[in-house]
């Protein structure tokens, strides 16, 4: 049943089962008697490096007969003239065949494993007939190159006309001669001259060769039967594409050598389309294809016509044929030198998946994870910014050995993770100008270079710290870092930034002498304490979060150290919505609170947190009231005053009410106890005191103040008597019964009020 299901799936999904990661030249051509070399690529895995490689020839029935393999097998037809060599370091194997004959033309496969299992690539080999040489000299050059044709002659023809003509059927049309005649199709690109003093040879130079220039030519010196002639066979070849094998998401490099004569011409790199045109990807005149924006660089090499093109972040659609060349217009033109490549993108890649786009908010940070070859853990790591001006540049911003560009001081750091195959770059204090493309690269293999696009969007940073802190020499300073609830499970850290990275500060459990890190989960703070402050403590400090080796958000603050107490507080006006205030202790000042928490403005807490967190804010407000700084005393006095004034008003109003009630009672009613007058009153009779003539505000509870905003709200509540809706009319009672019940209700409420007024001041 399983085999039947597998066969069914293969029948309906043949593309998934037949796609091969093996790559080689689709077409190979040569002539009789010559040799040929076929290079085949395979994925860089341990299994592929050690498995069997083979070269086989396809028959009419579809069967592929092995001719040579890496196990040492060679068929009798290839004996003594073919070999197969494996190069595991480059993930290639090469098949060399010599002494070619017309019979070698046909369809072949280069592959891995056993024949016919899908891991192979089809190659077409064509062997053409060799030209008759006899007295004909053959010149072979690529399109766009230059050829120099030598034409010997005898001394008696030294003063006679020299010429070069091209055969068209039975006619030989003059291309150039020594009298100055030149064919229009060769104008400005052909020269005839006599070199040296021997007077026995003249030369013809043809520049910018075109495919139409190929053919038979005749050199001639003199006229009639005494003329000296020589037959020339000029072959102009289209460039044989060089194979380039790249993994998905990796990088590849195209090296282009056009010759010294092209050193000062504009260079280009284009891609062949199905219509036969070559669409420019990038050129030195500033033109670029949007599909390659941010992931391509064209770099000239010395002043010899050489340049390289590096493409990062390979995609499936990048596979195809490419050309590089030179022309003043920066475009492909006939007769100008070109080179060709055939790019294959292996989708069975070993490259790790990383984010191609990262987003950060202004004032916040981003962390970029960069992969590198684990075999090259000691290689230098870099991070550069891609610039889309002219031919594209990527100047280095930071490297693993400590280089950081001056304009990124305190903002940029590179964190290595040896043995993990990745390193992290964190860019802090983002601005809109930071948006763009950035590259991760090493000084090892170029295939591990990756591209990341940074987008800066509107929003609030997750971590909030002061902009700048000024500490006093010899004193202590505590720097708070606010973090949201989503980071509770993350590891928090403080580190001191330098151009060699960001050195992590010791944790609280280690209890270092110079610096400590503590975290108060209730107030969502990570505090950095420097005690005592020394001059070496001056600099940038980072607060950040991480999970394992993955770094998250970070925030930067600069600590300045002064020798006097003047200006010892935060020297910048910190935005209360963005960062907390900093408590700085001067020498001889009172110690910090035992839990090392910072004094936080209660109004800031209200603005930053949601309503259900008010209980935590009240605890922070009480902790702030007990702090020992001058600012703390001022805040406590204000809180005490705002509490006692409304409380005194409440007590005064209550006392006046009780006095008035007692005066009226003595005047109108005799004093009797509740139990002695009526003992059969149920609790339902006291459900609404209004039925018995009680005051609506007599039973008000004591006031509790949590924050300034809450105190103001409750003060207004205690000074205003709301009007209650009318109660439904009840059954009439006798005058005696109504008087008894009203008097009982009055005594009950008066006792309650008196007890509350006595206990209230002690609770406050």
CATH homologous superfamily annotation of the largest domain: Immunoglobulins
Secondary-structure content class? alpha+beta
Question: Kindly, what is the distance between the CA atoms of the first and last residues, rounded to a whole number of angstroms?
Answer: 83 Å
Q: Tell me, rounded to a whole number, the average pLDDT.
A: 75
**Number of individual domains:** 6
Q: Radius of gyration, Cα only, in angstroms? A: 45 Å
Structural features, described:
- It is elongated and about 155 Å long.
- Mean pLDDT is 75; it is low at 1-18, 507-512, 567-641, 667-733 and 755-764.
- The chain has 764 residues and is an alpha+beta fold.
- Strands 1-8-7-3-4 form a five-stranded mixed sheet, with no helix packed on it.
- The protein folds into six domains: 17-128, Immunoglobulin-like (Sandwich), CATH 2.60.40.10; 136-237, Immunoglobulin-like, CATH 2.60.40.10; 243-346, Immunoglobulin-like, CATH 2.60.40; 357-457, Immunoglobulins (Immunoglobulin-like); 468-601, Sandwich (Immunoglobulin-like); 639-724 and 731-763, no CATH class.
- 16% of the residues lie in helices and 35% in strands.
- Helix 6 runs parallel beside helix 8 (708-719) and helix 6 (630-668) runs antiparallel to helix 9.
- It has nine helices and 41 strands.
